[in-house]
Amino acid sequence: MKDTFSRRSFVQSGALFAAACAASNAIPSVAQPKQASGKSSPIHLGLASYTFRNFSRAQMIGFMKQLNITDLNTKDAKDHLPTNPEEEAKAIQDYTAANIKLHAAGAIYFPKDEDDDIRAKFDYCKRAGIGVIVAGDPTPATLPRVEKFVKEYDIRIAIHNHGPEDKLWPSPLEILKLIKNLDPRIGCCIDVGHTVRAGTDVVEAIHAVGPRLFNMHMKDLTDFKSRDSQVAVGKGIMPVREIFEALIATKYKGFVDLEYEIHGDDPMPGVIESFAYMRGVLTGLGYATNS
């Protein structure tokens, strides 16, 4: 990354930070923001490694240092967290050396209702010390078998909704209907973009899911009916402040992971803008942000 790019990007991030604070002041439906009190933010920002799917692990670690982000939701893309145990161990060493903590992995898919296949996914996460599996496609029929491994490994499953194209899990509300009587360690990963495209109010969904919310994928859209309208967080119409307030109200303890899916070959400008905006909103809510 060239120095000129870095300077330009961080100038942009400062502008977005100011814009986020201004946006917080402009919202009439909620209490006006306070001055940052020094109180640590209850919202923990992280990164979904899919954002840097076209970049190596070493490159992503370098980007995370620039972003001052140390918490990663990773997956087997490029060499981010390989499924091969020896290669996975090397990746874990690299993250540990860089002070990067792995809190979730996914999306991980469960196409087979078979013990060996499911156990391999849980072993993969156990080796990395990961406590949340973001699950892409477990069917209702496979959930009882998945539940057995949740109990054995004490690793939570967060089923990821994929919007109106997903016939099983378009929104978190469909997930909630089918897991409400299962082990409490089976819950949701709310993808805010897919949720709004499914016609679901994302703030209401956060309150509905409550203690079964284990992970969040954050993005922004300019049109809630178009998956192709994704932009940097703060440039669209996603109710970021209201989302954060709902997470605080429900005492959410997990991470809000930026999943920036556009500009795969040059994501950093949008990623920088997104984190600057989210940090600005949190500052507008009166919290100090160290990440």
Main beta-sheet strand count, sense and barrel state: 8 strands, parallel, barrel
Radius of gyration: 18 Å
Helical stretch tally: 10
Average pLDDT number: 89
Q: Quick one: how many beta strands? A: 10
- The shape, in one word, is globular
| Backbone structural class | alpha/beta
Helix content: 40-55%
Note the run of SSEs as H and E.
HEHEHEHEHEHEHHEEEHEH
Report how far apart the termini are.
Answer: 21 Å
Strand arrangement within the widest β-sheet reads 1-2-3-4-5-6-7-10
Residue runs with pLDDT of under 50 for 5 or more positions: 1-36
Oligomeric nature of the chains:
single chain
Q: Give the amount of beta strand, in percent.
A: 15-25%
Overview of the molecule:
The protein has helices spanning 3-26, 57-67, 85-97, 115-127, 143-153, 172-179, 192-197, 202-209, 240-249, 268-284, and strands spanning 44-48, 71-74, 101-108, 132-135, 156-160, 186-191, 213-218, 220-221, 230-231, 255-258. It has 291 residues and is an alpha/beta fold.
